[in-house]
Amino acid sequence: MINEDKKINANSKNEQLEYFRSADSEDKELTTNQGVKLSEDEESLTAGERGPTLMEDFHFREKMTHFDHERIPERVVHARGFSAHGEFELYESMKPYTKAKFLQNPNVKTPVFTRFSTVVGSRGSKDTPRDVRGFATKFYTEEGNFDLVANNFPIFFIQDGMKFPDVVHAIKPEPHNEMPQASGAHDTFWDWVSQNQESAHMVMWLMSDRAIPRSFRMMEGFGVHAFRFVNDEGKAHFVKFHWKPVLGTHSLVWDEAEKLGGKDPDFNRRDLWESINMGNYAEYELGVQILEEKEEFNFDFDILDSTKLWPEEDVPVRIIGKMTLNRNVDNVFAENEQVAFHVGNVVPGIDFTNDPLLQTRLFSYTDTQLLRLGGPNFHEIPINRPVCPFHNNQRDGFHRQTINKGQVSYRNNALAGNSPHTVDEKNGGFAHYQEKIEGRKIQSRSKSFEDHFSQAKLFWNSMSNAEKQHIIDGFSFEVGKVQYKPVQQKIVDMFGKVDHGLAAAIAQKLDVSVPPANIQSKVTKASPALSQENTPKLAETRKTAVIISDGFNGAEVKKVIENLQAAKVQVAILSDRLGSITADDNSTLKAKHTFLTDSSVAFDAVYIAGGMKADKMFEKKAKMFMQEAFDHFKPIAVSNEGEQWFKEKQLPSKTGVVINKQQPDDFSKQFIDAIAAHRFWDRSIL
């Protein structure tokens, strides 16, 4: 065994490689658990290259079943989550496209339950790691439950679910030391990425600001897969689902996210919980991208490839309704932890496509719930129970709650008049879309799935300069944690196929070779919808710290607070102690936050009003608060003693800094406008 000293001093390629190999380094043949040698481990068995996945694929079922049952009792992935109840209301009938009843009548509100989550970390990890976020919604419709199991990225790492256990094993804490928690910044993940280059597009999103959302309320959701809408006449359209947050899509900056993980590991769930309690409900508009079947092959990518998005400029998103999350859970375990989502929970009018990742998920979810929730009756747990009646001949099993009466539990039967009976399609019975399938049983992927870099380049082209720098910084941090130098080089070479400038910038940070420029993608197209610079920006519900000490200007501060609250900005009074802080006119404001309990990372903006009786320690902490907010590109307002402290810090005053040289109303308006702008990225060049 190689000791730690040798690890630290292992500079040559051979020494490093030897360290990372296990003691048992003998090359082995891949087999099933029954010892059957395998000729394929990356593609599931399908009916033709673009056909559905077949249940007879015993290796896929064994591999996925074992993976689904690895963790007890928390979820294998998406263990860290938080939820809320709400309702969905339709803007316009979708009858021409789908017969799903909850998408027919704008006057009917459908109850929903939504769970947001991180993917990689354990249930006890922090809210703010660099990670994908789950965005799963259960619609309790009159026809049964429909689950839209979405993410905050429109794509995924892999094209076929056969690889899902592999990517999760790679990104989870490494098994020999169970580190790092809730992070992909380690060797096994980036080794996997370098060996599975279909992940290039997803990794670009993961290194971007999208991976560190400011709030669940400010996070997009995407159904990822192409589904089908089917109408009353049996005509089908391809469809992708989108959730668009009314407040826009916004993110933290990396340093801020890291500090929040220590200061408030519950930052995102606390934001959702407190916002709903205050009546600032989380709102999202539901959008759909719809394609006629005849348009399936009209694009330079395969519409069934889950590593590809449908650019909104090519396939517009049609907004059809709004979800409002307006009620917090009553019990986190009973609701948030026991809720069971499944992409296979659909209603008549919504059906599946041959997306190979979707096809494998249809098997995996039920299998996972069987272990996690203790048996086949998880549908009877209150949070999972449909609002419409359900009847079938399924019986017994762990945790059965239904008391079935009578002697018959089978069909066909005469003793109970063949009840429960099937329902034909015209009367609401689910009937699978009759897609014509031809092809040999095969473990292979269509050549239309082979381009892994064009949309990664599209994403890069769509970013603002600030967003591009954040992606470079993301790669530099994450891959910089990799200890095995050849993996770092492989990653730089891989993303050289996306953009040479990106790869060169990462290479410079990692001290590896720059790949040649002629291998980069030739794509020049951009999709403005992908940049968060083009999202709605509002001051509403943004959280502002008002920093005061005894002797503050009472009339001015109270007027500014009044104006902020009128603009629906959340105001938090912060001082060096809790309780009443006395103004120069002997009025008081109550501080509920202190320098010790909070820092600037907990707020979107800061107003430093100071106070004539502030001591040197207060002044020092206020300046530190101000400096950190400035470094995170946040709006800052200063007046009175706060203005003097700002000048003493010698910070530039032209970018998102409002200095009180006018009446409180004008000062407030300028500050509210700055809060609506959110960040001032041009500070990075000052």
UniProtKB/TrEMBL annotation:
Coiled coil: none annotated. Signal peptide: none annotated. There is a cross-link at H342-Y365 (3'-histidyl-3-tyrosine (His-Tyr)). GO terms for cellular component: cytosol. Residues 1-52 are annotated as: Disordered. Belongs to the catalase family. HPII subfamily. Heme binds at R75, R115, F164, R361, Y365, R372. The active site is at H78, N151. Residues 31-419 form the Catalase core domain. CDD domains: GATase1_catalase. InterPro entries: Catalase (IPR018028), Catalase_AS (IPR024708), Catalase_clade2 (IPR024712), Catalase_clade2_helical (IPR043156), Catalase_core (IPR011614), Catalase_haem_BS (IPR002226), Catalase_immune_responsive (IPR010582), Catalase_large_C (IPR041399). GO terms for molecular function: catalase activity; heme binding; metal ion binding. It is an enzyme of class 1 (oxidoreductase). The keyword Membrane does not apply. Its EC number is 1.11.1.6. It comes from the Bacteria. GO terms for biological process: hydrogen peroxide catabolic process; response to oxidative stress. Residues 15-30 have a biased composition (Basic and acidic residues). This is Catalase. Gene3D superfamilies: 1.20.1370.20, 3.40.50.880, Catalase core domain. Its cofactor is heme. Pfam families: Catalase, Catalase-rel, Catalase_C. Decomposes hydrogen peroxide into water and oxygen; serves to protect cells from the toxic effects of hydrogen peroxide. Keywords: Heme, Hydrogen peroxide, Iron, Metal-binding, Oxidoreductase, Peroxidase. It catalyses: 2 H2O2 = O2 + 2 H2O.
